[in-house]
Amino acid sequence: MNVRAAVFRGPRRPLSIETLLLDPPGAGEVLVRMVASGVCHSDLHVVDGEWARPADVAFGHEGAGVIEALGPEVAGLAIGDLVVLAWTAPCAACSVCRRGEPWLCVDPRGSGHRLSPQQVRLRRSDGSPVGAYSGIGTFAERQVVAAKAAIRVDPRTPPGIAALVGCAVTTGVGAVLNTAAVQAGESVVVIGAGGVGLSSIMAAVMSGAHPVVAIDAVPAKLTLAQEAGATHAATPDRAPALVAELTEGGADHVLEAIGLSETVELAIDLTRPGGTSTLVGMTPQGERASIDVYRFVEEGRRLLGSNYGSAVPSRDFPRICDLYLDGRLPLDLLVTERIGLDGLEGALAAMRRRDGARRVVIF
């Protein structure tokens, strides 16, 4: 069948909207009609050349869809299911999965951008292959993905919200609940009020943390953070004084959700002795941040990295959708604008301006 898709052609080049041929699903695969896809800051890192990724792939990695066909050897899914697509679906067999850290799986199902000949399902009219970014390529009207990457969720979940659960929401919520394991009554600072940071703020509020402080350089984002439940908000230059005023020696938890060296260093500085700094935002590849090692060791601090919110998609995607439907996570705040595929370049430009939270492609 024919599908329209946004294809990544290489760094610092516009995405190409193309009509491609999509093969039917093979063994262990499903055909998904996409309903929505978020435009993530990770996409911008790739387009702007800050992360090295292969070209000629249907782009996007934060999406949801409805299953239209099942390949052989697929169990637990049915035609008509609403599914959130996971850009890493743990194999459950490697040493990392066996030790209980499936978010670090070394052989996730459907990964590798589906570039190998046996995995290619998208082609141009001349027969040339097109891969699927992160195994799911969500900027396409339809996509064939590994069945283990398609996680069934409550069908009442709105398409745009379901899409964001595929990356930003799970990354932010999981960083609070899974990685940092924030407890009621603990103080939390979140640096960055984009899609991931706002999700972290919502999760901290839901966990009973207090105070919950949002830090961002953009006043409109601080307003959005307070709508998400932050008790206090400040720009980075005001952050040290505000955190000192609200806490005794720093916050119990500081989560960095931007991915800049200077805000990584700020996160560590705002954490109390014995507290935990959790790095969630992704910097350009190769960037480094510095710390005062003596002070870090002397004060018994902890520094954690949070990949995909330390999430297990099959467990966490349905749970997050249920929390949203129960009114405990106000995720509608994340959707700044609904667009079509033709609006992707504008969405990337808005992200460069740090304008809003998330643009969502609605198919």
Specify the overall morphology.
globular
Rg calc: 20 Å
Number of beta strands: 18
Helix proportion: 25-40%
CATH superfamily of the largest domain: Medium-chain alcohol dehydrogenases, catalytic domain
Number of helical elements: 11
CATH third-tier fold name of the largest domain: Quinone Oxidoreductase, Chain A, domain 1
Structure description:
- It is built from eleven helices and 18 strands.
- The protein is an alpha/beta fold and about 375 residues long.
- The protein folds into two domains: about 200 residues, Medium-chain alcohol dehydrogenases, catalytic domain (Quinone Oxidoreductase, Chain A, domain 1), CATH 3.90.180.10; about 140 residues, NAD(P)-binding Rossmann-like Domain (Rossmann fold), CATH 3.40.50.
- The strands form three sheets. Strands 3, 5, 6, 9, 10, 17 and 18 form a seven-stranded mixed sheet that branches.
- α9 links the parallel β15 and β16.
- The longest helix has 13 residues.
